[in-house]
Hints:
- This protein is an alpha/beta fold.
- The protein has one domain: Alpha-Beta Complex (Inosine-uridine Nucleoside N-ribohydrolase, Chain A), CATH 3.90.245.10.
- It has 13 helices and nine strands.
- It is globular.
Amino acid sequence: MKLIIDTDPGTDDAVAILIALAHFTNDEILGITTVAGNVKVDVGTRNALRILEHAGRNEIPVFEGEAEPLERELETAEWVHGTDGLNFVPFPEPSKEAEGSGAVEFLRDTLENSDERITLAVLGPMTNIGKLIRDFPNTKNKIEKIVFMGGGAGMGNHTPVAEFNILVDPEAADIVLSSGVPLVMMGLDVTHQAISTKERIERIVATGSETGKLLSGLLGSLLDIEIVKQKFPDGTPVHDAFVTAYLVDNTLTTGEVVNVEVETESKLTIGQTVVDVNNISGRHPNVHWMNKVDDEKLFSIITKTSELLK
Ligand code: RIB
Ligand code: CA
């Protein structure tokens, strides 16, 4: 498989990236592209470099992406991920820089020149991907599939109906959802079903690796946030991990192929993904919407990650 990870690291992004680094080779992970979301894009870029530094995988190139959504003001989530983006979990300082070219240029060149289709793992706002498809539509034919964390059927985490990644750049999400590219959606409906309980974190720490300590820091870091603790007293979801864990084992989740569209106009419901679970609209079923997860399997993959990455 050929894979590009598009990310706004982000504590759960970091878990997702570590899963990919543990299970895929440098020949399979063609690069990491960063985008503004949880934190400003330069902070996310530095975090991507820090994660690679920790894993000893500096051969994987990092390309800095869009600093602002396609049409809106950037909204970040430092209140969730900390001003450093990793809630001060002690990843090392990077010993290299991001590449000179930008994320969309890298995505376009790599897709155009690849002799096989490439899977995109999208962990943040879809700004880079939306810009790629809008400006270089021919690249769509070289995308194997897009597995993304975002949205939810009638549920939100930043407004009553909108999930953060989609809310930050609904116009970009609209381009991706109407692109015709095969889409796999890991929305809040499924990510809220897998919780980083104390027992699961202890199992990860018991592997004894440095990675295990960092994972424990990442998984436990949101529990200091009152609103998160109230909703998830036993542990927090690890949204982005679903994307790369699914690429490791696609029996992780099950779902249905349904129509999903996004609200880009309404003040009240901007960023809502409208998931037509009962096929009422008759609109084209464009998304493999996941709604069930084997949560034990998710944490086995995370524990395995801790064993495989020292
Ligand atoms: O709503 C959760 C998503 O928003 C995750 O991708 C998290 O990293 C943030 O980007
Ligand atoms: Ca993210």
